[in-house]
Amino acid sequence: MKTVLITGASSGIGKELAYVYAENNYNLVLAARRIDKLTKIKKDIETRHPVSAEVIEIDLSKLNSAEKLYEKVKNKKITVDVLINNAGFGMNGSFEEIDITREESMLVLNMVTLTKLTRLFAKDMKEAGGGHSVNISSMAAFQAVPRFAAYSATKAYVLSFSEAIAYELKDDNVKVTAICPGATQSEFAEVAGFSGGAFSNMPTSRDLAEFTFKAMKTGKTTAIHGFKNRILVFSLRLTPRNLVTKIAAKMME
């Protein structure tokens, strides 16, 4: 039975990913800050499905947290077949007014930790003869987004990084997939500072989790969630970048 490691697994997309992979007979390693929520998910999944779930309490927005998580997994003698770098958050607001300390934590989580975890587990996957790394990017990866400047830049990094290493690792049977969702119902909107149920009419975290599993199974390198989003990405290639930025700014108002 294969094992999947999911970061940011205590709620939202990460939680739903845990259930989708359990339903498809994967053992789980669930990592997040909120151990109480992880423990409840573990108990529920193990009651419903014939799989095991390990939980690891860790704040991945801290420098060197990737090494600590990797060490914890190795100490448990767990072989990770699929790594899902789901943990991440955004901050909505003027670049000059956003809390720079919190923004630094976002940069570490969205890029540094993701990069390190991918590197650490890719080495093990190569030695084991194969594996898969799934990185949750965003539709924000395809354009600059005023008032979401640093966040959209981190997701552009995730997309570019994923596509590059997918090419580098293809001969080692280690696949890499970047998932690019649009707005999705999760805790993201609340954490990012959006109000009034801004994402309430959007696809659910369960929708995205099922899409992610299917994209992984088909071996896609880049997977954009939603037909309208795929059309939008195509149209962005034909639109001047300054106009795209202006439109994105209007949408964020």
Strand content: 5-15%
Order of helices and strands: EHEHEHEHEHEHHEHH
CATH homologous superfamily identity: NAD(P)-binding Rossmann-like Domain
Kindly give the count of domains: 1
Explain what you see.
The chain is an alpha/beta fold and 253 residues long. The radius of gyration is 18 Å and the shape is globular. Helices cover 51% and strands 14% of the residues. The chain has helices at 12-23, 35-48, 65-75, 100-128, 149-169, 188-192, 205-218, 227-236, 241-252, and strands spanning 3-7, 27-32, 53-57, 82-85, 131-136, 174-180, 222-224. It has one domain: NAD(P)-binding Rossmann-like Domain (Rossmann fold), CATH 3.40.50.720. The N and C termini lie far apart (48 Å).
Which terms summarize this structure?
alpha/beta, Rossmann fold, globular
Q: What does this entry show, briefly?
A:
The chain is built from 9 helices and 7 strands, in the order βαβαβαβαβαβααβαα. It has 253 residues and is α/β, with parallel strands linked by helices. It has a 7-stranded parallel β-sheet, sandwiched between helices.
List the helices and strands and how they pair.
Blueprint: E1 3-7, H1 12-23, E2 27-32, H2 35-48, E3 53-57, H3 65-75, E4 82-85, H4 100-128, E5 131-136, H5 149-169, E6 174-180, H6 188-192, H7 205-218, E7 222-224, H8 227-236, H9 241-252
Parallel strand pairs: 1-2, 1-4, 2-3, 4-5, 5-6, 6-7
Helix pairs in contact: 1-7, 3-4, 4-5
